[in-house]
Write the structure tokens for this entry.
Amino acid sequence: MDKKEMADIGEKIAKRGRPKGSGGNERPDLSWNGNKDLQKGDNRKYLRHALASWDLPQIDISDASQVEQRINWYFEHCADDDMKPTVTGLCNALGIDRQTFYNWGVGKYRNTESSAHLDLVKKARSILEELWEDYMLNGKINPVSGIFIGKNHFGYADKQEVVVTPSGSLGDDARDIKALEQQYVDSVVDEE
């Protein structure tokens, strides 16, 4: 194949573009073409949003009112920047790790913390979960990413429950059990 033929093939591929979904429904949020959907300045926007937590003054995480103020700040920050809030972003704003956030959500906290933490984190987590569901239902995040988020942050799981019921194939009465025992004894005697 010469250079002209290769150029023609490349041109045809470029003209064709990204294939449409079934029935002509395009989902631009599902691009698998790397950074194709990033606009100039997107990386700067995401980075600046994340770095806003960097210089925040440390809060006393044993003080529920300070925790509540910081949670409110984070959600307002996301609204101001028009960004989706995340569990990790909220943890960064609070100055805690995801495990601490999880522990508070399930009622595990140190003596210096209070049950008020549990209520605050449950509220914040519920808001994040509601947003996640809305994004999933409205095609605002990639379904694979959404499933990952649901499993890792909100306790969702893919599982099937299988119920096994014994079927009495060996027989239910003692005569069948005796017959089975005799059959076993006979097979052992035959082998000797």
Residues 43-165 form one domain. The mean pLDDT is 80.
